[in-house]
Structure formats: C-alpha cells, structure tokens
Design a protein that fits this description.
The complex is a heterodimer. Chain A is an all-alpha fold. Chain A folds into 2 domains: 24-67, no CATH class; 72-231, Tetracycline Repressor, domain 2 (Orthogonal Bundle), CATH 1.10.357. Helices cover 65% and strands 0% of the residues of chain A. By secondary structure, chain B is mainly alpha-helical. The mean pLDDT of chain B is 92. The chains are: A mainly alpha, B mainly alpha.
C-alpha cells in the first residue's frame, strides 16, 4: 500500500560513504510524482497534474489523494530529486578550478535543471504554494539543503563559523536567482547568468570586507597584548 | 561427489551492509560536533596559556608545545571528519573560542599550578566523554558482528581514531598531575567550576 512520504529526513546528519542511504522516495510514490511532473508544463502545479500522473503510472486516479500535502509534495519531489541529481549532472575534472567558479557552475546547472524540466513557466505557481504558511519551513529546509549540497560538491571543507554564513548567503543568491529566472525571457537564460554573477560578486565583496575587518581587529588586539607584555605588564 | 559444498549456499544470508539507523546518525552527528568543538577549545586554551606560563617557567616550554601540537593534530582530524561526513559544526564557535581563550589566559596568569589544574579538569571531562563514545561505537560493532553485517572501514577507523585521541588526552592529564596540578590554591573551586563548565558546554554543543 502507498504510505505517506518520509516523515523525517536523516540526510541532514552524518553522511556515510559505506552505509548507503535508501532512496528518499519509494517506487510507487516516485513513479506517480515523476509522471505528474511531466504534466506540469501543460496543467500547472495542480491536483489535476497529480491525478494525470497517477493515471500514467497505472494507478487509480484516487491514488493522488494519498499525498497528504497535495501539490506541495509534487514540488518537494522536484526539489529533492534535482538536489540529489546535481552531482550526476555536473562533475569537475579541472583541478585548478577555484571553489567560487565551481559554486557558480553548480548554481547555474541547478537553474538549468528547472528549465530542462520545462517548469520555468509554471515556477511562479510553485513559489506561491511554497510561501503558504505551512509550507515555509520545509521549503526553507530544502533551500538550506541545496546550499549545503552545492558547497559540498564545490569542495569547500571549512568547518568554522563561515560554514553558516556561506550557506546563508548562497541560499539568498539561489532564491533570488530562481525568482529572477521566472521572468527571464532571454535566450538560454543569459540574463539569469549575469544576475547570478552580480549577486556572487556582491557576496564576495561583502565577505572580504567583513573578513578584513575581523582580521584587523584581531591583529590590533593581539598586538596590544604583546606590546604590554613586552613592557613588563604581567598579562 | 567432487563438488565443494559451501554451507552458505543453503542458508539465508543477512544483508552485508545496512544503512545506519537514525539514532546512530544522530549520535555520530552530535559526538563529532562536540569533539570538534572540544579540540578547538583545547588548542585555544594552550595558545592563551603558553605566553604567561612559558615566561614564568621556561622549562615547561617543550611540554606545552608538545601538548599543543597533539591538540592541533586532534583538531585537524575532527575538522577533516566533519567536512567529509557533512556534519554541521557548532553554531557557538565564536563564543567557545572567546570562552576558551579567556579560560586559558586567566588560568595562565594565575600561575603554573592553576594552569595545570585547568588542564587536569578539562582532560578529566574530555577523557570520560571519549570513553563513553568509544563504548557506544564498540557496542555498534559488536551488534553488527552478531548480525553478520560488515562493519566497514569507516566505523573501524573512527573507533581507532577516537581511542588514540582519548589515550593522548589521558596522557595530558597525567602530565598535568605530575606538574603539581593538585597544588593549585583554590583547587576544588577551580576544577569544580571548569568541570561544570565543560559539561554545560558539551550539553549545549550537542544541540546547538
């Protein structure tokens, strides 16, 4: 029998390389939702698309009612599968590519995934559904997990406070870019690419300004203490 | 009649490598985060203690350097594990950094015995903490062996690393006691406050 989707995702915790996770969606759910996604470009993010998906996957129409959050489950399926598929869509072979450039490539690839699925025209509906009060926490969680995935795939290994600031800033950049993409009419989404470049440049400038200030203050504090010590003050 | 007769052909084989349970992942997540924060605090304590201690007691310089180098190695080990296994570091990072620097500086300024008492208190708490972790991991390994599951390199190297680090921390404890940690003047107060502080910090870091 079909059961409600995963209640608690352990993905946010320890990631093991030897004890592999089972896939996040079981076969029947995965079949219905992936079929439903193919109907979204023509029918939008609606219960009707879910029903058509259930029919395509050879289940009864009523099977669509088994997704407790309805259309939001469909959106979440797209978000989860695209996030987990990001490492298969793009692999880095250039050893000299910096982390920043890898992050840029990953963001653009994820945005391209929205376009490849044909969902950009309907994504404003999805954003509206995601902004409903009961859907905001899981949507933010998915955004955070995507930011974590992008930083991990780009090879970042810092585990100090910047772990938090990097994910926060990347979440902001990606969310803004996704919204911008829904209004982008240029060929191959070149305007969105430039938008992402401008946002990443802003993040870079802000980051280096803050880091420089902190380094300066740290240096001043250390030097004052050492200076006093050299004068014989017992600290 | 000349065919080999393996037993496993007719017996159902259990799954060789199962995914970790949610409770196990939760434990690993919290344990490694706390270990990382603990080693961060240890390196900062020694960094802050060393200038006043080395100035007043130059003969302690090699010992302080040796202990600092080992703590820096532990910190690197856990940083690497956190990044590799995608574990969230503690959000209290800047607060623990400030607190550890203050603790190291104040005990360093109080004198050699106080600095050693601080080391003794911290290492006692840390030693107990690591012991609990090793016990838990070994329990898992035993259960896996009983069920016929493969333990895997990941868990095995983790147990060995934590054991080695625990042994080095207990060695620091011994050095601290050898260097008159028990002679510190408000001994009970100092070690009591530090041990309670450590336990509180561990509790907070497991969650935040």
């Amino acid at each position: 029998a079909l059961r409600p989707l995963l209640l608690r995702s352990p993905q946010a915790l320890y990631h093991s390389y030897e004890h592999n996770e089972p896939p996040p969606y079981r076969e029947p759910e995965s079949a219905i939702l992936s079929a439903a996604l193919t109907h979204v470009p023509s029918h939008g993010f609606t219960q009707h698309a879910l029903t058509l998906g259930a029919k395509d996957a050879s289940y009864l129409d009523i099977s669509a009612n088994l997704f407790p959050k309805g259309v939001f489950d469909l959106i979440k399926y797209h978000l989860v599968t695209q996030r987990l598929g990001l490492k298969d869509r793009i692999q880095f072979h250039d050893e000299n590519m910096g982390v920043g450039r890898k992050v840029r490539s990953l963001i653009l690839e994820r945005l391209r995934a929205n376009a490849d699925a044909g969902l950009v025209g309907r994504w404003q509906e999805a954003l509206a559904i995601m902004s409903l009060a009961e859907n905001i926490p899981p949507s933010l969680r998915e955004l955070g997990l995507l930011a974590d995935e992008i930083w991990f795939l780009s090879g970042d290994t810092a585990v100090d406070t910047s772990w938090y600031t990097k994910r926060a800033s990347l979440s902001g950049v990606y969310a803004a870019a996704e919204v911008y993409q829904t209004t982008d009419q240029s060929t191959e989404f070149r305007d969105t690419e430039q938008f992402v470049d401008r946002r990443l440049e802003e993040v870079r400038v802000m980051g280096s300004a803050v880091a420089g200030t902190l380094r300066f203050l740290n240096f001043e504090a250390g030097t004052s203490v050492n200076l006093l010590r050299s004068k014989g003050v017992r600290i | 009649a000349t065919e080999p007769k393996p037993e496993s052909l007719h017996q159902p084989q259990p799954a060789r490598r199962k995914p970790l349970t949610a409770a196990q992942k939760d434990f690993l997540d919290r344990a490694l985060r706390v270990n990382h924060a603990g080693e961060l605090a240890a390196t900062l304590i020694y960094t802050a203690q060393s200038p006043p201690i080395n100035k007043a007691h130059p003969h302690l310089r090699p010992l302080m350097k040796h202990m600092y180098d080992q703590e820096a190695g532990h910190f690197a080990t856990f940083s690497h594990l956190l990044a590799r296994h995608r574990i969230r570091p503690t959000a209290m990072y800047p607060i623990w950094s400030a607190a550890a620097t203050f603790l190291g500086w104040s005990t360093g300024v109080m004198g050699r015995e106080a600095a050693m008492a601080c080391t003794e208190a911290v290492e006692t708490e840390i030693g107990e903490h690591y012991n609990g972790q090793v016990r838990e991991f070994l329990g898992w390994v035993k259960e896996m062996e009983e069920r016929g599951e493969e333990v895997g390199e990941e868990l095995r190297t983790l147990v060995e690393d934590v054991r080695r680090i625990r042994d080095e921390e207990l060695e620091h404890l011994d050095h601290a006691v050898e260097n008159d940690a028990k002679e510190a003047n408000p001994y009970e107060l100092l070690t009591g406050v530090i041990r309670v502080g450590c336990r509180g910090a561990i509790w907070v870091t497991e969650r935040v």
